[in-house]
Protein: Methionine ABC transporter substrate-binding protein
Amino acid sequence: MNLRRFTTIAAAGIFAAGSLVACGNDSADSTGASGEESTKITIGTTDAGGKAWEVFEEEADKAGIDLDIVNYSDYNTPNKALSEGQLDVNLFQHLKFLSEYNVGTGDDLTPIGSTEIVPLALFWKDHDSLDGIEGESVAIPNDSSNQGRAINVLVQAGLVTLKESGLITPTPADIDADKSKVSVTPVAAPQTTTVYHEGKPAIINNTFLDRANIDPKSSVFQDDPTSEEAEPYINAFVVRAEDADNEGIQELVEIWQSDAVTEAVAEESKGTSVPVKRSAAELKEILDRLEDKLKNQ
Structure:
């Protein structure tokens, strides 16, 4: 197999050409590293160019799995492609994103294995603690995927109090200003690093730290990846409900959780990613809880 072969999809609605090869021994049509027949699995992601994916593909090949990796440039298409049968499985999202997709579309895509959590953190230039932060305005990402989580980071830090506790995706309007120690200023996610360099506290998505020359380990606070509040942000392998017991796809979970891939993920995230091993049943329970809350909002 020619490793590092993947298709990039640049726009929603345009999928890899050719028919999907089902996951099963009778679908094998290539040869793995061992010289034995390989099972072909088509997987979608938004980060195929990373080192972790390179190692993942190599380890899958050793296990006799020929990965056909489809890389998307947006976050909306991979679930649609999976639902429509263009993919066997995808790996790009956390459970909260999946719950919003399922509730919004009426779909029933399901997680079968966990990968990691990347904590969301509060950074404050030239500070190594929260001392003196009371009265400051904290910049937070204004996008729907991160704003609620950022506010909950401040809740966990004891800096913000919500009018109603336990909200999964609180907005600035849900903050009780009189009981909070800081205020928030929503800005475009890339601008949080600009605010940081101006000397003001900011919650910054891990994606923007490296390009802004910010040490991921210099945060003054981050959410606890083992807490219940962090569960919505567990990243997961996702399949159509009818494929939840597919052994070939389940093997991919074990490969991702192997030492080789785990080390590559840690290197890429500069040690900020936290490996998570949750069973499919546990992930489905979390997903169901998230979907129920969304439906009752």
Residues 148 and 169 are 4 Å apart (CA to CA). The domain at 6-118+233-296 is CATH 3.40.190.10 (D-Maltodextrin-Binding Protein; domain 2). The first strand starts at residue 6 and ends at 9. The first helix runs from residue 51 to 62.
